[in-house]
Amino acid sequence: MKLGIVGLPNVGKSTLFNAITKAGAEVANYPFCTIDPNVGVVEVPDNRLDFLEKAYHTKKKVPAAVEFVDIAGIVKGASQGEGLGNQFLAHIRETAAIVHVVRCFESKDITHIMGKVDPLRDMEIIDTELILADMESVSKRLERLQKAIRLNDKKMLDERELAIKVKAHLEAGNPARILELDNDEKILLQEFFLITAKPVLYACNLSENDLPAMENKYAGIVKEKAKNENTQAIPICAKIEAELAELSESDREAFLKDLGLEEPGLNRLIKAGYGLLDLETFLTAGEIEVRAWTIKKGSLAPQAAGVIHSDFEKGFIRAEVMSFDDLFKLGSEKAVKDAGLLRSEGKEYAVKDGDIIEFRFNV
């Protein structure tokens, strides 16, 4: 899972990126300090792996991972060359979803590029620049289609009609992700590679004083916009996340307890990202290693096997499956087998979150 972190300069996105990846991206109190995208991989917290590690006396534990891309600050006019211009476009196109960091705190020490805090204005600036970039892309596509159109080519005709529909939607100031489309149009739209078609998760960057309540007047504005777009707004404090990142595990737990929090903001962000992209995790376990694998919800057993290795999918025979909950409750794989809860599943089995699977294959 690759998530692109975007936002206006000085909203806290690079601070957040540093905290969750410990990658050391430059942070400074001035615009455009993040010129090149920074990429970092962070492990997905999963307590199930801790149990499996002990249960199988394993030599290796491999969590699932999320790749975060810190993308250079976008300013008003970026699509026409302002600030860093449109250098950010290619980097955003490579991501599966966008984490839009919105400043929801006031500070005399950290300047706001627009002069004052206004989440709705800030969100609209980012949306507008991405919409303008997509408008240019769709216009070029439509121009090519008009020149090459063949009346007996249904796909090309459908593509032209969709391009006209999307262009009008974008020109009205709306991101492609909220355009109502039928299933065929949704599939065809994927070929357009539009930035605003990507799902968006809003991260409300709060002050540490507002973090226990997870709320303030600015966050409320962001949450309302997120609700209207059928997505989520996750409250987070980049400053606190940065402090947590520097602590040992035991100190981190104590710090969270003092703050009245059950988990770091990173955990909430990753969970929301998984939900946004309709993802889930299955597990493999043995003496050599225990590992978490990320798949789309509803993936069939051969597709899940293919995530491990293409040969597993090509030569798929069956999947030996037990649920983590059964293993946790009964304590051992033998106990699960004795209880008749280890199942043999075929090609049509839809893998579920928390399934522990051993694949049988032949190539």
Summarize the structure in words.
The chain has 363 residues and is of the alpha/beta class. The protein has 14 helices and twelve strands. The strands form three sheets. The protein has a six-stranded mixed beta sheet with strand order 2-4-1-5-6-7, sandwiched between helices. Helix 1 packs parallel to helix 8 and helix 4 packs antiparallel against helix 5. The model has no long low-confidence stretch (mean pLDDT 88).
Summarize the model shown.
With 363 residues, the chain is of the alpha/beta class.
Question: Helix-strand pattern, N to C?
Answer: EHEHEEHEHHHEHEHHHEEHHEHHEE
Strand order, largest beta sheet: 2-4-1-5-6-7
Classify the helix fraction into a percent range.
Answer: 40-55%
Strand content: 15-25%
